[in-house]
Design a protein that fits this description.
The complex is a heterodimer of chains A (201) and B (428).
Chain A (H helix, E strand, L loop, with lengths): L1 H19 L13 E14 L5 E4 L2 E8 L3 E15 L3 E24 L2 E22 L2 E6 L3 E15 L8 E12 L8 E11 L1
Antiparallel strand pairs in A: 1-2, 1-3, 1-10, 3-4, 4-5, 5-6, 6-7, 6-8, 8-9, 9-10
Chain B lengths: L1 H20 L4 H4 L2 E11 L3 E14 L4 E2 L2 E10 L2 E5 L5 E3 L4 E3 L2 H22 L10 E5 L11 E4 L4 E4 L13 H22 L5 H18 L16 H29 L13 H4 L11 H11 L5 H31 L3 H24 L10 H10 L6 H10 L26
Parallel strand pairs in B: 4-8, 8-10
Antiparallel strand pairs in B: 1-2, 2-3, 4-5, 6-7, 9-10
Helix pairs in contact in B: 3-4, 4-5, 4-6, 4-10, 5-6, 6-8, 6-9, 6-10, 9-10, 9-12, 10-11
């Protein structure tokens, strides 16, 4: 959440800075293929031991390449949960990596150098879990094998190119809903909501 | 062309979803005899994380099978407990399954211990007393918010475990406490339930029913009841009634502690989970004194004169229970030494004598028809000993000290009363 706030501040500052740099000269359009790095806080729910819903909030980081209509992304995320007490406890760590292909299905230029896209995405990858079990003064760490994950997503994102001096430098913000499929997920598919904050270069 | 491409793409996506996303979780599919990593107690080495084989699993995702069926946060409905199906979580490794949270681990540990207790029951000749799988409630929420406790409820024939909030070994993985609660099911089925179904004297009915009703009150069942004891001077009939209430409760608790020692070999099985109870419930104390009739009568009369009568009588039940279990433990140790047997063998042989004597206790209760008829711990102790056809000299000496009526009918040993705050765990 702090990182999201930081990005918003950066964007606001950039917007203020850009407004000072009045476009006396027309800025050049960004190049067709761009790199992208991003961070995305995510919210997903798992079924707990009493059938209740338990929230997980991993932070998703990634990088990729973007063309006019397509994005090719690599994502990594991790979340942990710990249950028990000082004498007997269990720490579970979930790690997941996905490759995404996204296609813009709708594009709108809002104002100069600011646009919005609606996209669909398909992803695939794997996850693994590590469990550290502690009992009194002893602990044992176990790892699961890699399990495949398939994902579908849709979202909306905005792109800003604010600096005429750096026409390829832009910012991305977006909101995405995704469904993650794996036989080991509960529920399956697992729904997730994430906010994306990125830099285009 | 575009339409064909779209159809192929849709088909590919659908196939990928089915290939990857469909199918059962590995823990849902796991059945039969399964290795699971749980906190496990072994005599001599104590608690450690081990891969333990859980047998007869039908659904690992609920940790249900031949020995246990779990209910999460159950309620009492009639004579059954009803609750949400638990959703246990595991990862699968090459060695076996590993729980990913505390509740899943506790369920697996309880299953493992009840599986071993079933084997102990069979070895002791009481394998057909209980029906399996046993019903176990976890995450039990009581109206008073009680924590750090476990119960056996006779009416629903279930073991119930409330949340554990201390920093020590959770009760749900404490081998001795699970054995203690399991014994209550044997005592209930062999002694209490049959007596309630026979025309035993009305005053005995109330005593025996209290052993059952105490828990039902805690769960807020529709048939909740209390003793309703107000401080007063008891009539002879009332004194006899509350005497037997305390005595049956004490025998139940004391023999349950002894059973826990039989199962674990640890005379301080309580302390890892409830260290504050160790001082009052340890079985390490060398004792030969069984509570006498006069002492129990005197204590019941005294305790009924102040406030919180029911809590005081319950506390006293636990005190005489501890005394009874210490005497049986000390007798077992003498039995072992006299016969040059290992502790494990001696514990099992004496335990077998005890469960064989339980039906005799039931028969003795049926003979308490006159207002002057009283049952005593000594009577039960002698019934147990009577099943030993080969009493040694050392045992005889111990028996004479433990059962003074066999030597001196005027003997009257004193027994301390437990503080009220220690009594809070393990109703039934």
């Amino acid at each position: 959440m702090k990182i999201a706030i930081l990005f918003f501040l950066l964007l606001t500052s950039a917007g203020a800075l850009a407004s000072e740099e009045s476009p006396v000269v027309e800025s050049a359009p960004p190049r067709e293929i761009q790199g992208l790095v991003f961070i995305s806080p995510e919210l997903r729910y798992e079924r707990g031991e009493g059938q209740e819903w338990e929230a997980r909030i991993p932070i998703n980081i990634g990088l990729g390449v973007r063309t006019a209509l397509w994005s090719f992304l690599v994502e990594y995320e991790r979340f942990e949960s710990t249950t028990g007490n000082a004498s007997a406890n269990i720490k579970r760590a979930h790690e997941e990596a996905l490759l995404w292909v996204q296609k813009d299905i709708w594009h709108q230029e809002l104002i100069s150098q600011w646009s919005a896209d609606l996209y669909l995405g398909v992803g695939g990858g794997a996850f693994q879990e590590e469990v550290t079990t502690v009992l009194l003064n002893n602990s044992v760490t176990d790892k699961s094998k890699l399990y495949p994950v398939f994902a579908l997503a849709t979202g909306i994102q905005s792109r800003w190119f604010l600096f005429s001096r750096f026409p390829n430098l832009g910012f991305v913000t977006g909101l995405e809903v995704r469904a993650l499929f794996s036989s080991e997920f509960d529920p399956n598919p697992q729904g997730a909501l994430l906010a994306r904050f990125g830099i285009l270069f | 062309m575009k339409s064909v491409f779209t159809q192929i793409l849709a088909l590919t996506l659908l196939s990928a979803v089915f290939a990857v996303g469909c199918g059962q979780k590995e823990s849902s599919e796991a059945q039969g005899d399964i290795q699971v990593r749980i906190p496990w107690y072994e005599e001599g080495t104590g608690y450690a994380l081990k891969m333990v084989e859980l047998k007869g699993i039908s659904r690992l995702s609920q940790v249900s099978g031949q020995y246990v069926k779990f209910y999460f946060a159950p309620r009492v409905v009639g004579t059954k407990i009803r609750g949400v199906e638990p959703n246990a979580q595991f990862i699968k490794t090459e060695e076996g399954f590993v729980p990913t949270n505390e509740v899943s681990q506790q369920m697996a540990a309880i299953y493992g211990h009840l599986q071993r207790l079933a084997e102990l029951d069979t070895a002791m000749g009481v394998g057909n007393v209980n029906t399996w799988p046993r019903s176990v409630g976890i995450g039990v929420r009581l109206p008073d918010g009680m924590v750090n406790n476990a119960f056996y409820d006779g009416k629903t024939d279930s073991m119930l475990i409330v949340p554990y909030s201390d920093r020590n070994l959770p009760i749900a993985v404490n081998a001795g406490i699970l054995a203690h609660e399991h014994f209550h099911s044997l005592f209930y089925k062999i002694v209490i339930k049959p007596l309630l179904e026979t025309p035993v004297a009305p005053l005995m009915q109330k005593s025996l029913k209290n052993n059952v009703d105490n828990f039902e009150l805690a769960l807020g069942g529709s048939r909740a009841s209390t003793l309703g004891i107000e401080p007063k001077e008891f009539s002879e009939t009332e004194l006899r009634e509350y005497y037997h209430l305390v005595l049956t409760r004490g025998l139940n608790e004391g023999l349950a502690d002894f059973w826990a020692w039989v199962y674990t070999g640890d005379p301080d099985f309580i302390s890892l989970s409830l260290p504050e109870a160790k001082k009052f419930r340890t079985l390490r104390v060398k004792s030969h004194s069984l509570p006498s009739r006069e002492m129990i009568q005197g204590a019941v009369t005294t305790l009924s004169g102040g406030g919180r009568v029911e809590a005081r009588l319950t506390g006293y039940s636990y005190a005489i229970g501890t005394q009874i279990s210490r005497v049986f433990k000390n007798y077992t140790e003498i039995y072992a030494r006299a016969r040059n047997k290992t502790s494990v063998v001696a514990r099992h042989e004496v335990a077998q004598m005890i469960v064989s004597a339980l039906p005799l206790m039931k028969a003795d209760f049926l003979e308490l028809t006159k207002v002057t008829d009283y049952y005593t711990p000594e009577k039960f102790f002698l019934k147990v000993i009577s099943l030993n056809k080969d009493v040694t000299a050392d045992e005889k000496l111990f028996i004479e000290r433990a059962a003074p009526s066999t030597v001196d009918p005027n003997s009257n040993p004193e027994i301390p009363v437990l503080p009220l705050n220690v009594v809070r765990w393990s109703h039934e």
